[in-house]
Design a protein that fits this description.
There is one protein chain. The protein starts with 6 loop residues before the first helix and ends with a helix. The protein contains 18 helices and 27 strands. The protein folds into four domains: about 210 residues, ANL, N-terminal domain (Rossmann fold, 3-Layer(aba) Sandwich); about 140 residues, Rossmann fold, CATH 3.40.50.12780; about 100 residues, 2-Layer Sandwich (GMP Synthetase, Chain A, domain 3); about 80 residues, Orthogonal Bundle (Non-ribosomal Peptide Synthetase Peptidyl Carrier Protein, Chain A), CATH 1.10.1200. The longest helix is centred in the N-terminal third of the chain and has 17 residues. With about 575 residues, the protein is of the alpha/beta class.
């Protein structure tokens, strides 16, 4: 077989070799033959509209077989895809589309009607595209190594998301490294769990499709619950899979049967604070990589507790990747000393779309050889005695929230979109070590929390919405006029930005529930009609609440119940109803 020159070429070759093999399982089962047929049909339709090399086509699709079909179709035309998350607020989708200026947007019919208008054509996937088998000639991939493969938008310090342009050379390198390092074969089964707009989704899709393995899509409720996700991984016979660090840490603490099919659990996207316990039936691999370096730049197996000291490192450079750890003058640091991490090699992005100044600032010439191109990560690392890298933190205000990269200035811009607001944001760790976004605002006397929250939710995805809002008479400033975040008060010692006076608990169950919920939210108290998701709650926190309710009240609530009844008052009714049903005589 002729060696594939690109990742879509690899997928096509594998699909022709075993057309009946399973490619994607969501609510239905999609074979490789059907995947190629559907992608080919869509690719011909896109080419008929002029789509080709260096064109951008946006994807607004959930995790699904449709997402895989559309992404393969776009790459088969030679174009690059721009993944968007349907869960984003419409204003953020509009901002990304306005910046990317794609020629087309591929989406589902029900989502097409919600899209903002612009100089793009909307292509709605219908039943004909989803199910039709075609005999048209294959739309053979025509990409060159330096061509764009995809553009991922990340949080931007300017107040707007910025697009990172990644090439086919970097994507092919990622796939070849992954398949060789983790011995991926057609018999492997992998999960498709990450948001389509998170670059981990690139890693979740292409290595397995290129190897002829199968992708499996868990439900939203499953992917948010550690125990449910563990059970799904086992029953779905998943053999290799990526789970973002916050969820992986929770899953490591769970019991696992010895016969677990999972052999490798990949993690990354945040600092790993714990090692796996001895005796787990799979290997834990910690990975590091900015979006600007094609998902993964370094990787390493994590030794279990008792076999190594300190926090887990972030491993060694992957295939065709070079790293430098330099001081402020651009000189290499010695092992054990801190320095900034620079990454070079095939995975380094072209730069930021339409942002030449920022591209020149972040993508620099290697000071040690004067020719190679490096990405300046802004991350502080240390080289250990054995040559591995250890992550130490950021040099700027960028943080990770639930595994997602967040620029605090983008949140400030969303807050200040409300008239009369000056704002600052911090992200201290909560009681469980996970970071909580705290917004400090100087605002007009009549501004309510609900009004400001509505402004922010219209512009930012959920993980970027502050958990707490604190009112200040003035922001502390440095001599330069910048906000001095180090002098912002502890939120517990400051006045919260509030609506009406919170309604106090009225029954013993509400008192207990209010204590549980406020503890999880790291708040001194909450009202019984306050929405826990408006107060900074999210799906992972909801699963923790479910476990606490089971321990305290002996009842099992589903994740859907918590989403549908997100206040203490409503949850108290659900808890009481279940407790009483258990007391009824048989």
């Amino acid at each position: 077989m002729q060696e594939a020159l690109s990742v879509p070429d690899m997928v096509v070759q594998r699909g022709r070799t075993a057309p009946a093999a399973l490619a994607v399982a969501d609510a239905t089962f999609l074979s490789y033959g059907a995947l190629l047929d559907r992608a080919n049909l869509l690719a011909h339709g896109l080419r008929a509209q002029g789509v080709g090399r260096e064109w951008l086509v946006a994807l607004l699709l959930p995790r699904s077989a449709d997402l895989v079909v559309a992404a393969l179709a776009i790459l088969s035309t030679g174009a690059a895809y721009v993944p968007l998350d349907p869960a984003w607020p419409i204003e953020r989708i509009a901002a990304v589309l306005d910046d990317a200026r794609p020629a087309l947007v591929v989406t589902r019919p029900d989502q097409a009607a919600t899209l903002p208008t612009g100089p793009w054509t909307v292509v709605a996937l219908d039943d004909r595209v989803s199910t039709c088998s075609t005999v048209q000639a294959p739309c053979r991939p025509t990409s060159r190594p330096d061509d764009l493969a995809y553009v991922i938008y990340t949080s931007g310090s300017s107040g707007r998301p910025k697009g990172v342009e990644l090439t086919h050379a970097g994507l092919l390198n990622l796939v070849r490294w992954h398949c060789a390092t983790f011995a991926i074969t057609p018999s492997d089964r992998a999960p498709l769990m990450a948001s389509p707009a998170f670059d981990a989704s690139v890693w979740e899709m292409w290595p397995y499709l290129a190897a002829g393995a199968s992708l499996h899509v868990p439900s939203e409720a499953t992917r948010a619950d550690p125990e449910a996700l563990r059970d799904w991984l086992i029953t779905s016979a998943i053999t290799v899979g990526f789970v973002a660090t916050p969820m992986a840490e929770r899953m490591l603490a769970l019991p696992w049967p010895a016969a677990t099919p999972l052999r490798t659990l990949l993690t990354g996207a945040d600092t790993l604070h714990r090692r796996p316990p001895p005796g787990l039936p799979f290997t834990l691999v910690n990975n590091y990589g900015p979006t600007e370096c094609t998902v993964v730049a370094t990787s390493g197996v994590v030794a279990p507790e008792g076999l190594a000291d300190g926090l887990p490192g972030i491993g060694l450079p992957i295939l065709n990747t070079r790293v430098r750890v330099l001081d402020g003058a651009g000189r290499p640091v010695a092992p054990g000393e801190d320095g900034e991490l620079y990454v070079g090699g095939l995975g380094v992005a072209r730069g930021y779309r339409g942002m030449e100044g920022l591209t020149a600032e972040r993508f620099v010439t290697d000071p040690l050889d004067g020719t190679a191109r490096l990405y300046r990560t802004g991350d502080r690392v240390q080289i250990t005695a054995d040559g591995e890298l250890r992550f130490l933190g950021r040099l700027d205000d960028q943080v990770k929230i639930r595994g997602q990269r967040v620029e605090l200035d983008e949140i400030v811009a969303a807050l200040e979109a409300h008239p009369g607001v000056r704002a600052a944001v911090t992200a201290p760790p909560g009681q469980d070590g996970e970071r909580r976004l705290i917004a400090y605002v100087v605002a007009e006397p009549g501004l309510t929390r609900s009004a400001l929250l509505a402004t922010v939710r219209a512009r930012l995805p959920d993980y970027m919405v502050p958990a707490r809002f604190v009112r200040l008479p003035a922001l502390p400033l440095m001599a330069s006029g910048k906000v001095d975040r180090a002098r912002l008060p502890d939120p517990d010692d400051a006045m919260p930005l509030a609506d009406a006076a919170p309604l106090a608990p009225r029954s013993p169950i509400e008192v207990r529930l209010a204590t549980l919920v406020s503890g999880l939210l790291d708040l001194p108290s909450i009202g019984v009609t306050d929405d826990l998701f408006d107060l900074g709650g999210h799906s992972l926190l909801a699963t923790q609440l479910i476990v606490r309710l089971r321990d305290v009240f002996g009842v099992d609530l589903s994740l859907r119940t918590v989403f549908d009844h997100p206040t203490v008052a409503e949850l108290a009714v659900e808890v009481e109803r279940r407790v009483l049903s258990c007391l009824k005589p048989a």
